[in-house]
Design a protein that fits this description.
CATH topology of the largest domain: 434 Repressor (Amino-terminal Domain)
Strand content: under 5%
Number of domains: 2
CATH superfamily of the largest domain: lambda repressor-like DNA-binding domains
CATH class of the largest domain: Mainly Alpha
Length: 104
Amino acid sequence: MERRMIEIGERLKKAREEAGYSQEAFAEKIDCCAITISRWENGHTPMKAMDIIKMVETLNISADYLLGTENVEVAIEDMISNLSFSNRQIVMNTLKAMISTMKS
């Protein structure tokens, strides 16, 4: 199994679960079989372009996220946006210190 397919499957499973779908309900929604969802999530079967389109539309995620090609800045912003203001400040101060150290 190729590592990249496994990582894509892990992101698919996470997004599906966060959207509240079982494998069976998600399969029905995108017109495929639950075993196919399982194979995708475990990295055993590659996805077709039309399947990816159906998945990202149904789960309200980007294809970039699913495929692991998203913009790093956007990904960081998405992670931080769910934090409280004080926790965002902690993250920002930590990043500043890390970047300062890396420049040295």
